[in-house]
DNA sequence: AGCACGCCGACT
DNA sequence: GTCGGCGTGCTC
């Protein structure tokens, strides 16, 4: 039989199946969806079997070397989903398949030089020394010895072989398990033959007479209070046998989740859930937009919908944005569905991710809660996909394949004929517009659960503060309220919006800003290392003490980091206990949850943080939320900046007063009259939607138009510009009249790592030929892409326009 | 992506 | 006359 294999070479020319003979011995083993090792040119590489057929049109085929899996890692439906994904995102099929699997399944390649014992003595002395203790050395190491040409001579003589190894990236975690090697009768006989002094052995035998199953060595020694030696001795005597047993790493091991029962739904929740339950029962595909204000009980709707799916013997996926940020969410799912839940998020190690994935693959769990890539969970009988906080940008992957989890979810929903729920308090304009058009079904939860009032929001004009002589980062109003909370022993959350607002070094005399020499952006100041770093290429430099332009020593850093805010806080409120949450304090595993726990227990008065504290916090004692700089991302070159600002502010404000105590919110801003800030303060989504839609319509942006962004980069500015120009001309000629092709324009970051970047932005309504045209472009420049430094990136529905 | 093959300049 | 530079094209 012949296998069609997609090989692990992400390139245009290899983005198609290659035929291989399945050797007789593997005919019953090799299945569609398995990873295999195949010879490819002189190398050995990994590939995916995507088809099996009796014959090939070619006649001199190579053989599959070996399978890498015992069971397929991709089902046929996931393979076709992968093909769709590569088609939609214009990426390679191999990249699409790999994006659907845990990283642990990506192959690791090693090139080695190997010498056989017979030919070892034939080598020149210098080379023999290299192989004294080993039969092979890594190619990389060989390069460093400087004997590479000498070694290559031996390769041609046939004394040394070049071998290519394909390995899995991680090892399976194993533990030693023990069981009896004898029958119960034999054990009893052995027991009676023991001397009375061998008490411990006696205990072990007694245990195995009662239990003849496998037990982990560690568990056995712990329960019987014995040492390993006792067991090892019995293994040696062949009374017991041992075996390496594969185990799962459970990130939530030893954690207790209080069991919860379905809550009684409010009338509104019931009305929202009815149509969902109906489509689940009828196995109908439909997309629901669940639009519910913060605290309206969306999660309970999710949980009870999943319940329904499980009762029908189907499985469900719930996507949440970066789940490690919301341990509370995990608690709710584990509490309701116990060990039927697998959790997948970026906080897990590669091994843990792999283990969670395998629980799904083996059918040991029925529910997955996870970040973006969990949308590919290998369930075979899916009944529901939920996307919580559907407006979140983290659902879009910025690397190839540049997919949006929402599109994948809907595709799977259509294929499997089941509903998809998109939930948000601040839906993306795209989704809300679709709901209004009837493409999605709108379900609303307009009221908070306990009818709590929305918090009182104050907008503080920081320009006024400055005029009245307050140069600190806290307005007098915020400071006053902070003091009041300290007295009343209530908690405050301070939110610093850092995105698009990094600390940079500027000369106060001449305005010189320290820039990266390779990229056209300013270097970011890193306080703890006293260094300047470029976030795009990694360039590092010292902080200058005098201005390189005008020699003035009035050069200092600008921008507000959480550390600086913390210092200021200590100055003005020395008695306040502050917990700071940012990338520095949460980089260690589990530290995120630990800090939140401390805050919840009341070990601090103020929680100070960035983006990451905007979601999921639901603590009864928080009565004040302060937003230190509401408008920093309003001025980014992004047509979604108003939308993002509105969503973020609404989100943050929702943190206050979720329980008995009423909440207050202070928003500090330099543009208090901006509609996204004013309307976020009122929590007025509907009016924001209307305003923003008007603007989008005028500017021909989504949801009125689709957009696709092409970015061309090259070491030479002229080349990048020239190619972009040609692409723009080509596209303009092939698109319909209603499409707009903007370009070539310099990218908002015109140079990264010494590569100049130009873009072409396409806005269109309906362009069925677009994908075809884009493929043509990629084909056209394929040669230049491989031979010169030209790079062309295509992003269909981009979220970042840089 | 790698790697071999192949055609030109700088050395023993 | 050979070593090694990297342009070109292929990998079942």
Automatic annotation (TrEMBL):
The keyword Hydrolase applies. InterPro entries: DEAD/DEAH_box_helicase_dom, Helicase_ATP-bd, Helicase_C-like, P-loop_NTPase, PriA, PriA_3primeBD, PriA_3primeBD_sf, PriA_C. SMART domains: DEXDc (SM00487), HELICc (SM00490). Belongs to the helicase family. PriA subfamily. One of its GO terms (biological process) is DNA recombination. Its cofactor is Zn(2+). Component of the replication restart primosome. It holds the Pfam family DEAD. The keyword Hydrolase applies. It catalyses: ATP + H2O = ADP + phosphate + H(+); Couples ATP hydrolysis with the unwinding of duplex DNA by translocating in the 3'-5' direction. One of its GO terms (cellular component) is primosome complex. Zn(2+) 2 binds at residues 516, 519, 534, 537. Residues 279-445 form the Helicase ATP-binding domain. The gene is priA. This is Replication restart protein PriA. Binds 2 zinc ions per subunit. Keywords: ATP-binding, DNA replication, DNA-binding, Helicase, Hydrolase, Isomerase, Metal-binding, Nucleotide-binding, Primosome, Zinc. GO terms for molecular function: 3'-5' DNA helicase activity; ATP binding; ATP hydrolysis activity; DNA binding; zinc ion binding. Its EC number is 5.6.2.4. Initiates the restart of stalled replication forks, which reloads the replicative helicase on sites other than the origin of replication. Recognizes and binds to abandoned replication forks and remodels them to uncover a helicase loading site. Promotes assembly of the primosome at these replication forks. Residues 542-696 form the Helicase C-terminal domain. Zn(2+) 1 binds at residues 507, 510, 547, 550.
